[in-house]
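Morning. Coffee machine broken again, so started the prediction first thing and wrote up yesterday's gels while waiting. Chain of 381 residues, entered below exactly as on the submission form.
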Amino acid sequence: MILRKRILFLRALLLFAAIAVIIYTYAAISLKNNQTESDDSEKPSYSEKSLFPTPITEPLLSDTLYLKTMPVEHIFFHPLVAYPKKAFDGDRISKGMDDYMATVTEFKRMLEELYKNDYMLVNIEQVYERTFDEEEGKNTVQRTEFMMPHGKKPFIISIDDMNYYAYMIENGCVHKLVVGEGNRVASYTKHDDGTETIDYDNEIIPILDNFVAKHPDFSLNGAKGCIGLTGFDGILGYRTQSDSKTRKEDSDRVKEVIKVLKDTGWTFASHSYGHPDMAKASYEKLKADTQKWKAEVEPFIGTTPIYLYPYGATVPHGSDKMNYLINTGGFYVFCGVGIRHYERRYSDAIVLDRKNIDGITLRNRRAAIMHMFDTELVIDR
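Came back before lunch.
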C-alpha cells in the first residue's frame, strides 16, 4: 500500500514537472517574441537634425502612421530625350544632353525598378504643410503625418525646366504638351520634314500617367509629380512670356493643359523666372526675378509653396534673399540638388535636396542610388 502511494506520488510529481516545463517554455517563447516586437518598434528612425541619414530599406509596418522623422526620397529629371539620334549627334550640345538628361527608355526602366522595390509616389504638397501658430502669432512649417500601405516607401518626382527651350527642341526633346484624346496629356512634335506627331509614350507626364493607370498602387491618392517652370521662354512649350508675338494664343491653349494636369494629380513649382544662380545673384536680382515669375507664370498655375533652385544653388536660411522668398514669394519648401538624402527643418521653411537622375548619376553613382534602383538595370547604353 505504501509502495503504491509512493508510485502515485512520483507520477504526480513527474506530471507536475512536465507541466512546469511546458509553461516555462511557452513563457520564454512569448517573452522572446514580445521583446522582438518591442525591438522592431523601437528601431531608431531618422533624426530631424540628421543631414545625411542612411536610407530606409525595411518595409513599413502594415497600416502604421508614417512618422514625420522618416525619409521621403526625392528624385528629379529634365524633359526626356525622346529622339536620341538628334540628341547625340556629336554637336556641341550632345555632351550636355548626355550628362543632364535621361532617355525615354531609361525613365521607363526606372519606373519598373522603383515599383518592384516598393516605392510609391506621394504629393509633395501633402508631405509638407504651413499652419498658423496662434500662440506664436506666425506661420509654422512642418512635415505632415500620413498613412502608407503595407511595405510601401514614399518618394517624390519633380521635373525641372519643362518649358521646352529652343535648344531642347533642336536636340531631341518633344516640342510641347497638348491635351489629346480622352482628355489625356500628350506630347507634340513637329519634325524636320514638317510632319507632326502627338504621342502618349515619349515624355515623363504621359508615361507616368500610363504607368499609374496600370499600377494604381504606385501612387498614394493619385499623386503624380511636381513640374518646375521658369518663365523667360514661356511654359510647357507655349510662348507665354511678355515679349512673345504669340502670347495671347499660346496663353489660351496652355490653360487647357494646366487644368488637365492639375485634375490628374500633377502639381507645380517655381524654378525662378530667368534661371539665374541664386547663390551668386544679388538680393535685387532675386527680388526682380521672383516678381517677374509671379507676374508671368503664377497667373497660369496659381500659387505654389515649392521653390526649385536653379542649378540647385541654395541661399542660406535667415538671409535677406531667403526671407524675401518666404515672406513675399510665399514659398516654404526649398529644393536644392544632392545625391544623398538631405532634409533640414526650420520653423518657417523646409530645405531639402533632390537626386538628379541623368547621365551623370546613371553612369557614376550606382552605390548612392542602389537603395532605390540599380542604375545598371536602367541605363541605356
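The first strand starts at residue 65 and ends at 66. Going to sketch it on the whiteboard this afternoon.
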